[in-house]
Amino acid sequence: MTSLAERRKELLDSMVRQAVYDGAVVVLTEYGLNGTTMDRVAAAAGMAKGSLYNHFRSKQELLEFVHARAVAPMHEALDLIVKQSGCAADKLRSISRIWREYLVEHHAVFEFLINDQAAKGLLKGSEQTARSTGIKQITVIIEQGIQEGAFRSMDARAAAEMFVTASIGMVEQEFAAGKSRPVDQAVDALMGVFLYGFCTREAARQD
Amino acid sequence: MTSLAERRKELLDSMVRQAVYDGAVVVLTEYGLNGTTMDRVAAAAGMAKGSLYNHFRSKQELLEFVHARAVAPMHEALDLIVKQSGCAADKLRSISRIWREYLVEHHAVFEFLINDQAAKGLLKGSEQTARSTGIKQITVIIEQGIQEGAFRSMDARAAAEMFVTASIGMVEQEFAAGKSRPVDQAVDALMGVFLYGFCTREAARQD
Amino acid sequence: MTSLAERRKELLDSMVRQAVYDGAVVVLTEYGLNGTTMDRVAAAAGMAKGSLYNHFRSKQELLEFVHARAVAPMHEALDLIVKQSGCAADKLRSISRIWREYLVEHHAVFEFLINDQAAKGLLKGSEQTARSTGIKQITVIIEQGIQEGAFRSMDARAAAEMFVTASIGMVEQEFAAGKSRPVDQAVDALMGVFLYGFCTREAARQD
Amino acid sequence: MTSLAERRKELLDSMVRQAVYDGAVVVLTEYGLNGTTMDRVAAAAGMAKGSLYNHFRSKQELLEFVHARAVAPMHEALDLIVKQSGCAADKLRSISRIWREYLVEHHAVFEFLINDQAAKGLLKGSEQTARSTGIKQITVIIEQGIQEGAFRSMDARAAAEMFVTASIGMVEQEFAAGKSRPVDQAVDALMGVFLYGFCTREAARQD
DNA sequence: AATGAATGAGGATTCATTCAT
DNA sequence: GATGAATGAATCCTCATTCAT
């Protein structure tokens, strides 16, 4: 039985957590991971520094929360696509498009999100890492493609690693260079390489 | 005329710099980029903290030196391969092999090396960044392949970004997972994907 | 509406600032301006080093605060006297007496107070400097004396500079020598020189 | 018996000391007393830092040497004038002119010279201090003036303190304000005040 | 539960002095 | 005597965490 008071408490708590998330994103954007202090997060979230510790045990926990919330949409989208019907190639195309759109839109949290392991000890265990989870699901899709006969027989896990890290790497490079490709162009380039490789059809035929 | 004293001074200086490099690598390995303090580097290099400042103007400069020295071998190998004769595909294979071997061997500096951009402001200008330089050279190789008629016509720059980030990404994932593939297997997987893509020849033919 | 909490906060803050002022004065006295470190000030003020930074953004700001608080009484006294009715000579006499009393009483802060410009960059703009402000007001009094016909026509600004720096200089010398004149004697000597100069009446008459 | 070697040694040493003086003046000018490090002095003097310690036991001693050499010309000029024949008033006028010219010309070392006591412990004992020596000699001149019947009977020591500190104070204020009076104008203003005071002859006569 | 001042362990950097060559 | 790298104490400042109100 959830009492009224309990529900109100939960509601308030979730509002605070959202404010913290928003504030943290602003601070991460403006000051980078190293410049993200509890002071600044508290100020950006419109609350007192001490209050943060009423909702998170430590800075580490707070950052883990921010990370999780930032990554969640990408995982949800991935989950949805994996479960949908459709051929493997189409799924990969959808995923690369959705990821890119999300990354570009939220490139605020981007660096923090991407450079997962930079903050050592932030996330322990590679398997729980966002990227790892994504790779696993991509692996499933690639295996699906192989079983359907559309994809060559290959090391699906390795292929998934390439697909994921290349997808992210492209965006990363674009931001580092200060200019980003149109989504369509980027997705076409990615799918072109991963579906057909560098070699011409003739070259491939000859092999 | 290089006096004896001058040569000795240079030799001593280069020994100190090597000690600093070695120490920094140890510290980076053990404590991560954020935990790499001047104190720890000095201790690991077997010298007093103040002495570091006789050889480097600032922490920033010291880290730039470490970065440069760590990355240099990869760039030299790349330079060599680019200038060699041979088909584009072979060059890519050589490069991916050499990189992997180096990354695996020096996985100590790995995180720092890879997460280039994590240390914001460490290296300014994406174009001067190690990864960027590598991507440019890979772009040249891919363009060579296109001109030779071996590779499809495509966005060579984008393809290079994928190749480089996927190469690194794979190693990264392996280390995150705590186990690494044999070199041959990894290179074969990489080249298989990038040369021929996911699709079967039949599928490719039909397109 | 000033809430109770707000008033208490202000009160506490003002207590801290007073403690910092007192501590800083002790340290300045004992160790001189160069020896006045944040550590020592914190210790003398009975608080942790970091706490200083909750009340002052930097050492510079802290010292500016100390300076301002130390100088304030002299300026207030000066203001009062300038506005009072009375002849210029009497005003100068009052001022020289008040300054001397204050300087002697607080000879703790003395060196720091006097050697304004020693701490380069501490106070920017000579016009805002304590001494400058004092000189300006003395200039006004001298000009008043000239207009009243009591003082000779002369460069009032230059005369004010002499009056102020000589007033301070005398005290300074006394402290350097380790013995101070009685207030009456000092004021008489000062006023004797500045009102009538070195020359005898006869000599003056002959000019 | 001074051997050749000894004389050569002395000559070399005096050359080094002059170089150190010149270098120190440059550094003091550019960086202020606090910014005057042994490194910078050595560089400006064209020698190695360690060599400074072959000629001066410590930084303190080096600065004392610089101070002494900077102040010497003023004392020599003062000595000369004191011993010359002439009335007291003329002597004071000469001194104030010479001091001003010297101070303006070398305002480089000025701050350091003037703010004697800022660097606490630099010069111990007020009697040895440059200003004190000057004051003593001025006292003698004023006493001469009194004995000659030209000056009123007064506290000569106090008057000398005022004369000296006001002389220096004026220059100081001019530099703080960034503009200096022509020598003649400054000397006239100074002598006007100190010889005849602020009051008109009439006022003086009535007393 | 909210607040924000207090805390104190670090962290980067400077610099007078020493000493081996 | 000259050199300049090595030293390490000292200095300013930051920031995660605690705690009294």
Structure write-up:
The structure is a homotetramer of 207-residue chains. Chain A has ten helices and no strands. Chain A has helices at residues 4-31, 38-45, 49-55, 59-83, 88-105, 107-114, 130-147, 156-177, 183-196, 201-206. The first copy, chain A, has 207 residues and is an all-alpha fold. In chain A, helix 7 (130-147) packs across helix 8 (156-177). The first copy, chain A, has two domains: 1-56, Homeodomain-like (Arc Repressor Mutant, subunit A, Orthogonal Bundle); 71-206, Orthogonal Bundle (Tetracycline Repressor, domain 2), CATH 1.10.357. The termini of chain A are far apart. The first copy, chain A, is 74% helix and 0% strand. Chains in contact: A-B, C-D. The interface between C and D is large, with 62 and 62 residues. The structure holds a DNA duplex (21 and 21 nucleotides).
Q: Can you give keywords for this protein?
A:
Arc Repressor Mutant, subunit A; Tetracycline Repressor, domain 2; homotetramer; 207 residues; DNA-binding; mainly alpha
Please outline the helices and strands.
The structure is a homotetramer of 207-residue chains.
Chain A: H1 4-31, H2 38-45, H3 49-55, H4 59-83, H5 88-105, H6 107-114, H7 130-147, H8 156-177, H9 183-196, H10 201-206
Chain B binds a DNA duplex (21 and 21 nucleotides) through residues 5, 8-9, 12-13, 16, 37-39, 47-51, 53-55, 58-59.
